Amino acid sequence: MTTKPSSLHRDATTSITLSDAISNPVPLGKQLGRGGEGSVYEVENDPALVAKVYHKTPLSDEQVAKLQALACCWSGPLEAISAWPRSMLFDPIKRKPCGLLMTKLMSARPLHELYGTTNRRRHFPDVGWHHLVLAARNTAAAFQTMHSSGIVVGDVNQGNLLVDNQMCVRMIDCDSFQVSQNGRKFNCPVGTPHFTPPELQSQRLREVERTANHDRFGMAVLMFHLLFVGRHPFAGRFRGQGDMSIEKAIAERRFAFSKNREATLVDPPPASLLLEDLPPGLGELFEAAFRWGDSSARARPDPMAWIEQLELLLKRRATCSVDPLHIYSNHLSKCPWCRIEDAGGPPFFGASGATSAISENRLARLHDKVALMREPQFPALSPTRIALPRLAPLKRMKARPKWTAPDTAAAVLVAGCATCLIGAFTPYVGVLIAGAAAAVAGAGYMLFSQPCRGRRKSVVNYLKWLANAQDGLARRAQSIAAGHQQRELAFRRSKEELDDDLKGYRAEGDQLRRAILQRGDLQKSDFLRGFLVRDSYTQIPGMTTSHVTLLESFGVESASDIEQLKLYGIPSIDSEMTMELLQWRTGVERSFVFDTEHSQTLAQMRVDGDAAAKRFKVSMARKILTGADRLDVLVDIRKAELARNLAQYDDLVGQWNKVAKQLADFQNGRRPLERWLNRWPAMIAGLAFGAPAVGYLLHLMVS
Fold first, then answer.
1. Phi, psi of 39 (to 5 degrees)
2. How many alpha carbons lie under 13 Å from residue 208 in its C-beta half-sphere?
3. What global pTM score does this model have?
4. SS3 at position 18
């Protein structure tokens, strides 16, 4: 049976009334949202409810059966933690199922807007880290309720959960969940790769029966997102060869924050909490959920284990003495958020545009780090390092090679030629004839015998292979040199930007105030923060959700974060993707309009100079330290890349040298006379016929 677009969707002038399972009318109000499968509407006579109407009807028998099963599963506990379907909705004319009736979730926002720093500052400005811990606890409680009801979420992802200002978490889009009724199981047909456990990566999820253990992996990723303020547990810097996508890292169980990094070969992104910043019990739960080399048969931590540890963390939290916005586990002796900020990382908590507490101590620590910052040095590439190999001259052998038939032929040819020349000066023509016969006989053997022909062919084959290989080496060397030069130019441009920032940072007096006016540009920064990469990634060529998650894990969330230096060292973000991101930011900037009424003058800056200077110094110090860190990463990446390229080049040179040695060994195994004569057939023939001819002419002249 084919599907067709539903005729039930209302427009501005049409009112549609559906009916529920017991034929009560359900009049649709305004549309609240539209997704891939259906649209959500208000219910006019009950503001506490919403109706989801599917785009395509009639629904298949499988869909109808699943919707019936969902409605039958409704309960008070499920209602408390989700927008669980209360009833099926029907076309009042044909009495065909067309949608679902469910509770409306008030004043709640997608969960990723809580743990993403830019959105959190906008929508949850007063939230601290302990609120994220509470949201994580409530997320675990929601999964516990689902699993206790025999329901598997299946497609766990950040878009399936909403959170309100009280940190209450509720699930939505429940019609995709895996449910059972009367022994019949209705699978979840979809999945989100970044939340899919290793054993299910690359599988056809529509055909897979999910389990609570599969859900526990996705739940642990959500826990990690919340506690680590947007970082993904499998997004980090891979120390092996090639790119490591999040999906591949999950499949290979390379937990980026694991304590066993010698095995995972992945380091956490910069400016991140570490697993050691959590209480040991929580760290062990993450290790168990993402365990390196673990089999899929082992059960991952269940929601109750998370609830216990998270509630314990809420009771055992400490407040930073330097910045009251910094909340952390009291098992630590020092504030981890100060550690991140003192190393040049961003302030994660506070309202949009706000900065963390700027004490003289913090400013001094940042200043010391800037003063001690070493200048990144791009790896050098000497032209001699990629010089082409050359054939070495043959060495004089201590032991003379064994005498062979080709050597005899060469000797006969030379002796015949010499006899022809000697015979020219004697009265006996027979000497000349004997010499000519010897020369022709020796030359004939050298030209047509298998041993001599084989030797010539071997030398030709060796030389041909070496010439072709050397051409390939020349192209490879040129490619390495050109690529290195191009990357060095990009590095130097970024280094110049860093030097400009350092110059502004070190400015004093009116020069400093002018730098603040020129560089502050708070209006533009606030404007750019309103454009999230996640919301606009489809406008950026080549950008995928995997790239978005990687960028967010490295602190790049909005157009304001997109800077050349910030993008260096992020896995999978190559030069082309960097260019696309910078072009997107440039396009966003074009719509910015500067409001002169809210700008500052140099005179105003003199009045509020001290506070403004502190804010500027801290901001610039963080930018400089972050930029220097990214340049260091870039240098390390380029060193590793250059080492790989040179290693490949050396392998090819090694092959060339091996063949060149084989040629040298082959040539050294021949006597010099035969080796010199048996190079070109034309030379052999020329000697065989030229020497008698010259001898005969000389004989005529002498006679």
1. -120, 150
2. 20
3. 0.75
4. strand
